Amino acid sequence: MAEVVLDVQNLTKIYGKIKRVDNVSFQVYAGEVFGFLGPNGAGKTTTIRMISGLANMSEGEIFIAGHSIKKNFKKAVSCLGGIIENPEMYKYMTGYDNMKYYASLYDGITEEDIRDVVQLVKMENRIHEKVKKYSLGMRQRVGIAQSLLHHPRILILDEPTNGLDPAGIHEMRDFLKMLAHERGYSVFISSHILTEMQLLCDRVGIIANGKLLAVKSMDEWTEALEGSVNLKMNVSDAVKAKEIITEEFKISVYANKSLINFTIASELVPEISKTLARNDIAVLSMYTGEKSLEDTFLELTSTAGTAIK
Ligand SMILES: Nc1ncnc2c1ncn2[C@@H]1O[C@H](COP(=O)(O)OP(=O)(O)O)[C@@H](O)[C@H]1O
Ligand SMILES: [Mg+2]
Question: Structure pTM?
């Protein structure tokens, strides 16, 4: 088992009287890309601000590389690098001079360290140009290089692909995977975009309304979907059909005009038809589709609060 680099235990943040982050626990291992996926307002940034020491926890504990943020703040945050807001850089200086300036704020960072991280983010050909000439993707990469200078164990990125074009997103994806899988960093990345997480992450946790609903590896997410189908049916009485199916099969059904839409184990499809027939509901047309991870994400986040294993 790989080493736990980030250990979040029962983390809670209360603003006013509302729990915006509600008893969240998870671990991130060395060498993995961990995705923190949730709709806007779910509590991702609030969680990240607590992990980075930018906001106090209301309850809970956080350990980074074994160091408690509460008891050993300096040591804990020294093991962490990240870009929480947009990377801060002086536009009229070169990327390299920005790096040198940043390095001067810490003890013991050598020119060689700078060269290494610049190479790691593949900016060696452009690093002597002024930052104002960089694309957003290039600025992000220099920002990441800066945050790697003090040799952290975990890199934390809050929605880093916001505003990037598809090529920039692709580049960032390859580069973050390389950092985790080849260099052994933990990479923790938040996003509200499912497909992005699917292509990038080894494991994904879904957060909604401050609650962490499930954490699974991508393989487990895929496996969890096998054997289910998504059914869309045009029926003579959608309201009644919704009621009956919800009652008999204990699943959630979306009804809209004459259409009902739900997900169910494949082997139960014939039972659905029989049940509807028995209740004098005519099926006018039916469409079967594979359940997608997107369906699951929407289901999970729209029923937020229900614990899902
Ligand atoms: N400083 C704050 N004071 C009060 N409420 C806040 C503060 N920061 C965030 N919130 C609230 O907490 C919730 C989660 O916000 P946030 O963590 O930014 O979500 P996300 O990053 O997932 O979009 C939102 O309802 C937001 O309005
Ligand atoms: Mg946010």
Answer: 0.81
